[in-house]
User: Which sequence fits this backbone?
């Protein structure tokens, strides 16, 4: 969550440096994304500019598909389709890089496909000035895409944290209810299921022990999750009216059968 804040600050710094509005930055993102979508299927292999555009478009397209793959978590058929298209685009990118590097006019070769995709924002050999309009648009695009990915990851993390806390509170509540019922039965020496008093007391002790283990986990989890949310300024995971780990559980289950 700290990284999300840093990326937001980086985007604000770019806005200030370029004296651009939110709308202008969003248009830059659209321009770069459109360049990836409009990659031509046919082009002149001896045209360095066409190859440059093709390489950039394929690179951006693969990066976008990787983000799409991350978003799709519960549809195997769609994930398979995205992976297949990524493999196809990687082959096209490999061929385009090879063709560009083999041109007589090429003075600086493009990195391999693996090295390009490993870089968050590669600097192309033909970008002599990183701060040109196209270079700045790419930088903004990369930061905005990174921010979107981080926000998605945070949302998934918070949801998983909430589900974990809900599971703990429901388990704790169920164990406390069961322990109280068992304590009442022991107090009245009423033992259903044909169990003896000693066996029933053993069951009650086991439930109490499990309840204590869950309560200990809840204390640690609550402290950890609260720190994550506070540091990230996110929504609350642990609600105020959620289960109190220290709430009373009846342990008075002494009976004559214990003697």
Assistant:
């Amino acid at each position: 969550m700290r990284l999300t804040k840093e990326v937001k600050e980086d985007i604000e710094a770019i806005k200030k440096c370029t004296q651009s509005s939110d709308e202008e930055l969003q248009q830059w993102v659209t321009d770069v994304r459109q360049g990836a979508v409009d990659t031509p299927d046919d082009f002149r292999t001896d045209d360095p500019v066409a190859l440059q555009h093709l390489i950039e478009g394929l690179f951006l397209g693969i990066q976008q598909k990787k983000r799409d793959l991350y978003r799709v978590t519960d549809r195997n058929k769609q994930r398979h389709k995205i992976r297949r298209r990524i493999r196809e685009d990687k082959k096209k990118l490999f061929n385009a890089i090879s063709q560009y590097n083999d041109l007589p006019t090429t003075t600086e070769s493009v990195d391999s496909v693996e090295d390009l995709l490993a870089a968050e924002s590669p600097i192309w050999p033909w970008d002599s000035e990183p701060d040109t309009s196209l270079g700045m648009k790419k930088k903004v695009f990369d930061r905005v895409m990174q921010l979107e990915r981080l926000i998605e990851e945070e949302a998934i993390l918070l949801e998983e944290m909430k589900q974990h806390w809900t599971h703990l509170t429901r388990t704790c509540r169920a164990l406390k209810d069961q322990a109280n019922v068992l304590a009442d039965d022991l107090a009245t020496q009423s033992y259903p299921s044909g169990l003896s008093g000693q066996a029933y007391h053993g069951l009650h002790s086991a439930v109490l022990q499990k309840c204590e283990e869950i309560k200990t986990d809840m204390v640690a989890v609550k402290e950890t999750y609260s720190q994550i949310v506070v540091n990230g300024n996110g929504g609350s995971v642990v609600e105020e009216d959620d289960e109190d780990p220290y709430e009373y559980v009846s342990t008075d289950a002494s009976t004559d059968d214990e003697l």
In short: Residues 255-259 have pLDDT under 50 and may be disordered. The chain has two domains: 2-148, 157-258. Residues 157-258 form one domain. The longest helix spans residues 133-187.
